[in-house]
Fold these 2 entries.
Entry 1:
Amino acid sequence: MFLKRAGIWPFLALAIVLGFAALLARRADLPPSYHHFADQRIWLGIPHFGDVVSNIAFLFAGLWGWAFLSRKSSLAQFIDARERWPYFLMFLGLVLTAFGSAYYHLAPDNARLVWDRLPMTIVFMPLVAALIAERVNVKLGLRLLPVLTAVGIGSVIQWHFSAEHGAGDLRFYVAVQVYAVLALFAALLLPARYTRGSDLLVVASLYVLAKICETADHQIFSAGHFLSGHTLKHLSAGTAGFWILKMLQKRQLLADH
């Protein structure tokens, strides 16, 4: 276990290592086939129906999270009421992801993909700020909330402008995604104030599962032509949002705090 006063170092070390890795990695952009998803079916007049409608998982998770945090009773789940603010932003990010991803999947292309990925960073990075607030220091977590969120948004904007100029560069956006996942594991190295820390492992596992489903989009769809891998990606990632909500609802303050 790291001493609490040094608790920011795992998060900082990850940022430094991944930042340098991104700089040293070869520039890479989306493959030409990226927007050609497996499930092209139209149903009820909605193109790419499965990939569009499955975004309802993000919408429900985000709205349910906001409803929970807005209740006075939710204050009992936080030592400091300010700890709720990163989660408010994270659940807002889930709602925005539902609309941004649905908009993208109606007619997938690079221009629309920006509106899919921007809100996703408003999920990843506020969650990291929440972990810092809970495991290191509340004031530090809140100070880093706008910084981390801006870094996430900036990685999408940087990719967009590089792609617009014919030299798409995904390195920093990928680094942000990897950082957010590894931060979940880094948090587990630090003293916890609440129970249910193992839920972070479930959230990380669901995200990894989502990425596997995304990669195996066509293979999964060809197995039975029922659900595509990308549709399952949305459902898995949406479940991760519900799992975070479940963690907040059920956790308790540890006895030594």
Entry 2:
Amino acid sequence: MKNQPLVLVADDEPRITKLVAISLSDEGFRVVTASGGEEALRKAEEMRPDIVLLDVVMPDLDGIEVMRQLREWRPVPVILLTAKGSTADKAKGLDLGADDYIAKPFHPDELAARVRAVLRRAAGISPAGGMLHVGDVEIDLERRMMSRGGQLVQLSRTEWLLLQHLAANAGKVVLHTELLTKVWGPEYRDDLQYLRVWVSRVRRKLGSEPGEPGRIKTFQGIGYLLDVEPPSPVETVPQEEPVDERSALIG
């Protein structure tokens, strides 16, 4: 059992933590619970869980603040749990760096599947060593960092995993299905709209204007390529269609 992933669940509703603990234990996970944000931080530091499930609304520290402090220590995957289920709320949670977002009430089978998917994404891409330079952008694949113009750029875990896979294959076309499978998991291999949304976000982090492809080139119906060559002065780059980011509900 010690080799099974350890899940930390923080929620101030005992019935929720009990339901989650029973459901995930039945699926083979080890589970430890916390009744608030402060306790979650203490247990995370002590037990170093593989993934953390956080209720957004807690009486001491809310889930967003707990996630922020956790990420200062190490890049642990985080799934937010909340009673709010609107598209805007989900998009906000993901923008703030969550790996996934589950609205209450949820089915235990769905919860277990989402936990497995996030853990696969967290472990599925092995960083290649070295530094990649793309214009004024530096991508440090070993330290899992990106800077632009000498300034560190904050990336969510999903943004980093997507950029990392493109950077590890710089100059090569990476298929849609490969990106979706590597970053989100095989069950998402056909969700091209999610991929378009997250590529749009990474493009902006790389310095592209909205609607412009910048360094991430689109090969229609095939995939994407991270271009490390300087653009030709006579090159004409087609504009990208605008993307509705609120449709991206997978972190």
